[in-house]
Amino acid sequence: MGAAAEADSPMAVLGKSRGCSRALGEPIRYDGDFLRQTEVILVQVNPGEAFTIQREDGHCQCITGPAQVPMMSPNGSVPPIYVPTGYISQIIEENGVRRVLVIPQPDFLLGAPSALHHPLPPLPPHLPAFLPHPVVLHPSLPPVFSGGAGDLASQYMSHYHAGHVFSEIDSYPVQRCPPFAPRDDRAGKTYGRLQKKLKERLGGGSSLSPTGEGARSPSPSPQKAYSTPSPNKMCNGGQGAEAEKETGQDGETQTAWINEGCKGGENLGVDAESEDLDEESLALRAALSTISKPKVTDVQASMALLSWSAPVPPDNVDGGLEVQNELRKALSYEVIISCGDEKDGMYHVVYRGDELSSNLEELRPATDYNARVRAVCRHLRGDPSEGVTFTTLSCAPDTPSAPWRTGGTKSTITLQWKAPSDNGSRIDNYMLQWDEGKGTEEFEQCYYGPEEEYQVCDLMPSSRYCFRIAAKNEKGLSSFSEVAEMFTSGGVPSAPPAPELTKSGASWLSLRWQPSPAPPSGDTVKYILEVDEGAMGCHFQPRYDDYKSSCTIENLRQNAKYKVRVRAYNTEGKSDPSMVLEFTTCPGCPGGLAVRGAVLPTSFGVIWEPPNDDGGSVVIKYVLEKSADLSGNSWEPVYSGPAVEYQLEDLKPGATYQARVHCVSEAGRSEPSDILRVQTPAVPPGPCLPPRVVGKPKARDVQLRWGPPHEDGGSAVTCYTLEMGCTHDEAYREVYQGPELDCTVTGLLPATSYSFRLQASSKAGSGPYSDCCEVITGPCAPEAGRNPQAICRSPTCVLVSWESPPCNGAPVTEFRLERAVADGSMHVCYSGPGTMHELRGLQPATTYYFRVQAVNAMGAGPFSEATPCQTPSSVPAAVGSIQALSEPELLKDPGPDAVYCPSSCLGLRWEAPCEHGAEIISYIIDLGERQPIQVGRITRYIIQHLQPDTSYKIRIQALNSLGAGPFSPTVKMRTRPRPPQPPRLECIAFSHQTLRLKWSEGCIRAAQSEVLQYQLQMQDRNGRFICLYRGPCHTHKVQRLVESTSYNFRIQAFNDGGEGPFSDVYTFTTLCCPPAPPKAPRLERLDDYTCDVSWEAVPLMNGDHIMYTLQCMLGNTEFKQVYRGSATSYRATGLHPSNEYRFRVGAIRQCSSPPDLSGPYSSIVMLLPLCVEGAADAGIGGTEAGEAGCSLTDEQCAALILALFAVTSILIAVVIQHFVIK
């Protein structure tokens, strides 16, 4: 309602809805019966409360308590009263007068679920100014409002609100709404359309509730001071029902949204239907209200990231954890923000979704914002969270608008520009650039400073210059504005040509002149038209001053002469006047131009009246003009004389003509009279030209085309009738009727003569027939002939004959005979002029189909119907595709009595030939010199007892009850040779891990052409032989064997004849493995003559003992053994301090069977001599350094090298940085 957001008191709505809806502010009309049934009901307004009504004049009146407002009841009963949550209505009847009281509900004030427990604030300061007396709303009552449940009272509008229900907020301001501000018609219609859309969205329900209606109206006097916000007073900011429609929510959610009263701005009111919520819904709503304060991160100039935590669903929801999980999934959130620069402090919804963060974009730089988050679950909305305040960063100014010119001369231009938004940082300077008049896109700076105006000097006259501007603050330089083009001023314009008279009248003259050339600077050139009225005794006086090059001078004297001249001027000055011309005003135009008598198809008469004003001069003659152009651009004079009537002849029937008349006197020619438009009646159209043939006539159809008649009789031709007749028959018949100028006549006979004539028709009637057009259709392909006749002469020969069909105007030159078998395609088997053909080489016992086609010069005709013919049975056809059976097929199924051997058997298979109508009984296999073999009705056979490695020529013949068919083509096949014997296997090289085996061909190769291959196998631990090698080579190396182990081998040879037998098993044994070389020994000098040598032990090998031998070399002599034993250290004595010694150690494996195996020696370690020439300290240091260097391990050496490399890299980088880069 209009006063719901203004009056700080509860609201009561009285009356009953009458089922009608009206626009906001429309008064209610009542008849006499209604007024007789009305009853006065008093609405009690308590102290400190306010009540707003609408009077008869449309103005709103605010009544403050204590007061009693009399309201009219239509039926004498008190309808339902709708009050805010936490209040109840009470009706008191005293002495026959009913009073309606709205009082707080005690239980609601003491209950915890609602937040309406704030103390009453003081009365708003603007309310005491309205203290009128109570007014009875009769006969014009307030607007109708419908509630959300059932039929509501519509005759009364009372706003009765408690102050703490709609309290104002400091950090979250609320938009205030005036009590029904007056609306114009357009606003009323707009409201009606919005209310209708809202009803359709609610499923045809009632109008907005009073709370929702009140939230739509703007506030007449928003207060500047706000109290602490109430969390239960927030809803969708600035979106309303239309925003809910955009989010795509269902009808239930939209209804709950509207019931919250969110219309227009952000109204933070209590849910209108919170009274109807059960305990579970109230608990869920309280849980949604526990959402924590959001956090703002990543604040930029135009964006910020807002994040928050989800509220915890209540524990007392029916359904346990499953329902709580569903509620968590159904949670969504709304982010509302308020800008500190806005006057009303409105909150606006900027995000709706189920994410826990939102990226706020399109913010204003250097602006304070307050953001809150509200949780939504299904149709319930929680209270908004605590607001978080943040300020966006400053940035460079916005792009300024293009500068404009405020003044200038021939050599200067004065520019001015407007300061753009500084985006939080004061603009210090402006940068103005120009192109120096070069006309290029290269700009140079011409001004830099804080002023917003600048004058550019030393410019060329009538020249073009381009400028652009940018603003700068401490954050940076803005983008440059759009380029503005400006011109310097030029000289005085040249004198224009003398004016010309375009039209004249009794008291006016219309003049025009050629404009002066426009200067390149773009300055506007204006013109001054000066008139000299000689009779008035005045010189030239200006009568026109503007930029157009034409004007009309009015208020002139009749039949008077005037001298006229023109001047041009601009900002630089005026030009010389043009040549002076003299013009005279004309008399008035004749009147009463009308038609005299009847209008005939080729003539009509006109009459007119003399002019009312002759301008002081006698009319000499009249000039009558006619025009067939309806646009009136061309006129033709048809009469000139003193008469006032004339008969126009030689006109076209059905044409529209325009006529006008002038009068001529000594003063000149007058303006034309009003145009008279006359249309002559139409006549039937004239004869058309004979129709003509388009292209070459075809055999079955002819395309004809014609043109409209030369004389259409003044009416458009609407229909053409084409008639056709044969030459031998004079009767014509209609073949086409329509508006088109061509048609195609079908269904004609080839090589036949036809006659065509044409008739045109219009609304006036039908015209005469045209001359006849003779057309002879062309020839075409022959007709389809009769079915051909087929006679079988043998199983493979058929004689086919046929008759010649009608030729259709062209003789038959060729016949095409086609044949096909059942379910096959036709193909040509004969082409020629004959009428019979004998076909040979046909298949016996086969049904053939024959058809024939005739061909002439125009093409091939259709085929005749197909004639079937079946050839008699015959002997089988020749066997084809004889192939040898593969070895897998032979081994898989050799036959019941056959034993396959590759060297003495050949396997055959073939395809069964065509039986030619009689079933095949058997096959005969011919091997040349040997006796033929007859087999049964099979298609594969194994021939046995053949010679090895021998070639045979094989052919096969099929037999049926009619005899033996022809032999198949001869196929040559060869038996394989016998398999070879195994070679002898021997070991030619061996070690502890490998064995190299070799075998020779020996006497196993029978022929030079044979290609032998071998297969070498070795026995594994399980006693099975596995293949090691398969190929043509004679040697193979077996690797990755175990030392001192025996292995069994066997070999097999095979060729094209098959695999031969395996050889006997050969056994070969690997050698023992020598020990690995020990690591380098370590030296430790005990004194000048003694040194300890130690080394790491070598792992044992298969339980054999390991012995070590230590060798030493003095100087460049040979190594000598100084120790042999199982120990891993040795003390060398008797050393000389000045000599150099080298040591190495080797391992010896003591095998169980001699001999022992010696391994390779370790790397050499050197013991440096002591220095006796220098000081004792230096000698000791050198010795220690040498010993230390000798005692470094491999890991220590690698770490030392890595450290030296890192130090070197750092030093190189420092040198490059210091000497090269800097």
TrEMBL record:
Cross-referenced InterPro entries: E3_ligase_FN3/SPRY, FN3_dom, FN3_sf, Ig-like_fold
CDD domains in alphabetical order: FN3
UniProt biased composition (Polar residues): 222-233
Record flagged with keyword Membrane: yes
Entries under Pfam families matching the protein: fn3 (PF00041)
UniProt keyword list: Membrane, Transmembrane, Transmembrane helix
Fibronectin type-III domain mapped to chain residues: 290-395, 399-495, 496-588, 589-683, 687-780, 784-874, 887-978, 979-1076, 1077-1175
Transmembrane residue ranges: 1198-1221
SMART domains reported in the protein's UniProt record: FN3
Region ranges (Disordered): 197-252
Identification of the protein by name: Fibronectin type III domain containing 3A
Organism of provenance: Paramormyrops kingsleyae
